[in-house]
Amino acid sequence: MKISPRKSINFDNTEVAFRSKSNGELNAAYWLFKIISSNFLTKVGPPITNFFMNIGMPIKGIIKATIFKHFCGGETIAECESTVAQLNSGQVGTILDYSVEGEEEEAVFDFTCEEIIRTIERAAGDTRIPITVFKVTGIGRFGLLEKLDAGKALNAEEQDEFKKVQARCEKICRAAYDKKVPVMIDAEETWIQDTIDQLALDMMRLFNKEEIIVYNTYQMYRHDKLADMKADHLIARAEGFILGVKMVRGAYMEKERKRAEEMGYPSPIQPTKEASDRDYDESLKYSMEHINEIAIVCGTHNEQSSRLLAQLLDEYDIDHNHPHVYFAQLLGMSDNLSFNLSDAGYNVAKYVPYGPVKAVMPYLFRRAQENTSIAGQTSRELGLIIKEKQRRKL
Q1: The pTM of the whole model exceeds 0.70
Q2: What integer pLDDT is reported at residue 366 of this predicted model?
Q3: What number of other Cβ atoms are within 10 A of residue 78's Cβ?
């Protein structure tokens, strides 16, 4: 059944964007983005914060009440409930994201695997939590994935170690299949990505035969990823499974360029932002042309790409709420996209990271730095908050 009449989208509508925020929450967001807008504080903040936490200074409460509260749902799944409810009040879904990273022990990988399955079990039967997510480095050692990607032979112990990674990955995806809760596999650094891509394709072969369960992530700031996505679609078509595509621009650009320069190989990153935008938008068009064979999560804070996908749905006469099309943004960012898209009848979900405050700090620092490095992101967020404060006469 088509949605009619189709509602136009106004990404400047702050009343819709911030409808779920109280006056106090809006003011807190204002001050947080004012602080983040300072490049100096964003650069010196992480080392100072880490130092204070490592020597036992009681700053956890300050962090949890400010930056953590804005960008994270809580320390546990249960603590995320109020965020789930608040997002749902604007018809925006939640993607529970256990954001602990950088671990090395097998016991931690086993725990993380079980915690990801708990997010799937929590989501089962709850339409407010339509998708889940995990990182392969949450369930396997980075160095092991790096060795595999480099084509180096694994010794017997490492072979056993990788079998455990494969088993954890399949256990998570099987739980998603059994509970009918889609799960996305996040993209990571290029020098471990081939191994992740292969794992993701193997999981799609197993679980995407009848409906969309597993998504892989394609980073379009890489110059080779549009071609990879199209090639994977041909594999999916030939083998009879749905290709799950989470489309993003990317998250490791500075690190990627630095490593390529230091090690003397060509940078995998697009030469210009325009090239990234071109490939991203082309991927959206390609996905809509093959909507029955590709399911897409459009992960973006870019207004132009969001508007393009909305227009493509109309051009191809695809339901706004087609189960193969989701928009996604991060909690605490781009509410003007999320809530105005959902208000117009599109499927939208927010990444809601959670985990112990100290363990989630790397994620929080990346968010703060991302807001200052993306041209205009912080000023855009601040401008919208100020506009809504003025509308509310705060």
Answers
A1: yes
A2: 67
A3: 11
